[in-house]
Amino acid sequence: MSQISPTHPHKLEKVEQWHLETDVAIVGFGGAGGCAAIEAADQGADVTIFEVAAGSGGSTALSSAEIYMGGGGGTRVQRACGYDDSTEDLFNYLMLAQGDLADEERIRLFAEGSLDHFDWIVGLGIPYKDSEFEGKAIVALTDDCLLYTGNEKAWPFCEIAKPCPRGHNIEVEGDNGGPIFMKIVTQQVESRGARIEYNARVLKLIADEHGEVFGLVVRIDGEERNVRARKGVILATGGFAMNQEMWSRYSPTIANRAVPIGNPFDDGSGIRMGQGAGGSLLHMDQSFVTIPYYPPASHTFGILVNSQGQRFINEDVYHARIAANNIQQLETGESVYLIIGEKNWQQPNMLGGEIETAGDEIEEIAEDIGLPVANLAHTFNHYNTFAAKGEDPLFHKAAEWLEPIEPTIAAVDITPGQHGIYVGFTLGGLETKTSGEVLTMDGDIVPGLYAAGRATCGVPRRAEGYGSGLSVGDVTFFGRLAGGQVARRERG
Ligand SMILES: Cc1cc2nc3c(=O)[nH]c(=O)nc-3n(C[C@H](O)[C@H](O)[C@H](O)COP(=O)(O)OP(=O)(O)OC[C@H]3O[C@@H](n4cnc5c(N)ncnc54)[C@H](O)[C@@H]3O)c2cc1C
User: Fold this and answer.
1) Is the pTM of this model over 0.90?
2) Ligand 1, CB cutoff 6 Å, lining residues
3) Which CATH class is domain 10-63+178-289+423-487?
4) In angstroms, what is the span from residue 263 Cα to ligand 1's centroid?
5) Which atom of ligand 1 is least distant from the CA of 474?
């Protein structure tokens, strides 16, 4: 048993000296930690952030910082662009997106608080232009703000909630939202006089014999220091995709087929600290995974087939839903192909898939790639027949993406784990109340311990229902709530 194992809290009775005291100790200075710090400071708490890296940012700074917001008649940007988004549509959409894993209370709070959250974020100084990016893209590379970043327009989502774009992209050219977002958040934290310790790796929590958390042990300048948190500790350490052993243990289906994205400290240390202090873990098997299927949007005119030569999804869904479904196909088969007409196959693209063969007849394509000829021919001909009428009776792809696939026909191998660029990060983590208090397996709170962001299991819980902006939306929204909750806490 290692002396510095994060899963073994240091015993309060063994603390001989407090090297530093603060009301609120926040572990990690990414999106969740930064927003928690701002809110805790605004509620009068003395705040200290401990960040292992040499600067703030975490994965939030690496991201596009698209944030998923709406409802309540629309954010300022939505209204300016002509959308009167409703809270019920936002709620219903998110509930269907998260499926069996949906946390209704959390989603309700997120949906009902979304407009206020937009105003809070704008109040920090985050710039959004009152304009819409109308293309189908992962992120707007213009400085436009509003874009569709999920499955809103695709079946079955469009049937239960009126489609509305909710991805808010920061006013900056290129994919540069994350650095700007974290620069502004950092300035806001600094302006509130919060203490920030960089190059400070938190090693473990300090708890008493009843499990109440009183502080943490941090290594600064090579020395271990005991920090007393008078009100509580917030774990905002991000996810664990960079810990390959941990990711593969909990979420092998995705971890074994995708490249992790994030910062190097996405190693699960905060999750393990919380677990060691009695915290329960939730949906650790769930990860975001994607393949940049678009841009170019023209790839949407193709069809995806499995090793039985059958389609399995409407190809106009969000890219992570495609990636997750591609991976599911491997449960019963060995391969996934994009079948696409020459006209709509564009290069360069980010798919990373190889054209395995191309030709004029679907039968010769099937033979070349080793799929059952009659099956693929039937799938192809059935699709083309109905696509010519603007219909997709099997999977309900929207009419705007339907047209017969014309020769030359290409088969692009995007079998997960073999071809195609699949990337991912984790969605499971500590189980918390919506207010950030970490819960035990029995549903009790761990006194003095809070968590937010990808160290927790939040609103986004599965790749099939992910949409860009849900993670930064979640980390900022619930980071704020956790910061406020701990700031109001009086130790008993
Ligand atoms: C390329 C990319 C693009 C993305 N784009 C989007 C997007 O546009 N919209 C969206 O919603 N999501 C996006 N995501 C996902 C999103 O960025 C993250 O899920 C989210 O930002 C995580 O926020 P966080 O605050 O939980 O963690 P982080 O921002 O990673 O912050 C955690 C911090 O904790 C620190 N830390 C970890 N362990 C310790 C320790 N023991 N002691 C001290 N400090 C520690 C880390 O160094 C880090 O700074 C993207 C992710 C990537 C990688």
Assistant:
1) yes
2) 27-33, 50-53, 57-60, 62-66, 201-202, 236-238, 261-263, 265-266, 269-270, 425, 453-455, 468-473, 475
3) alpha beta
4) 7
5) 11
